[in-house]
Amino acid sequence: MQRFALDPVRDLLLIVDPQPTFMELCPDELPVPGAEAVIPVVNRILAGPIARAVVTQDWHDPAHLSFASQHPGKRPYEEVALPYGAQTLWPDHGVRATPGAAVHPALDQAKVVLVLRKGYRRSIDSYSGFRENDRATGTGLAEWLRAVGVTRLFITGITRPYCIDYSAADAAELGFDTFVVEDACSRLGADAALDESRRRLESLGVRFIGSAALLPT
Ligand SMILES: [Zn+2]
């Protein structure tokens, strides 16, 4: 198995949305099966040679337009047309400054040097940590990473094939050497959709690895 010689400047762990709102801890929000089990895997990586990490955090307006509750007659997982295109509707989740939106308290934040909040504009969702769902509004993350010398990203967190896969696709398109750490990512939905998303990411140059590749030999 390939193990990576990690550089303290060039390499960075991206931890996507490690928030209770996506866990069984918050059954009335947007629980993703198995999401909480990602935290100890990420903590093991953080205890290894990786030097720096960034956390993204879903941070929605209470009346966010990605919430089904804002669209009378619509239910979660239906789609609506927003000015920027089709948007899947979700249960209310990640509402700013609520307990569910916090960074999970068990995450080891010692190496986390930036927490980037996304999705805070009421009218635009943001799956990706790099670009909002209108595909035009940047979050500033790419510029920040370049400013501090990062060229290679290892992506973990919650959840494929949404916020993780959108972030990975954008990272690759923006020129970062991009890896998805499969066993450090939760999964939502059918295997076929996850496989199709993986193939698309691989066509963009994203590679899939196991977390052991980031740990000491
Ligand atoms: Zn969200």
TrEMBL record:
Enzyme Commission number(s) from the entry: 3.5.1.19
Origin superkingdom: Bacteria
The protein's annotated pathway: Cofactor biosynthesis; nicotinate biosynthesis; nicotinate from nicotinamide: step 1/1
Keyword terms of this UniProt record: Hydrolase, Metal-binding, Pyridine nucleotide biosynthesis
Record has Membrane as a keyword: no
Keyword Transferase: no
Domain Isochorismatase-like: residue ranges: 12-208
Xref: Gene3D superfamilies: Isochorismatase-like (3.40.50.850)
Family assignment from sequence similarity: Belongs to the isochorismatase family.
PANTHER family registered for this protein in UniProt: LD05707P, PYRAZINAMIDASE/NICOTINAMIDASE
Protein name: nicotinamidase
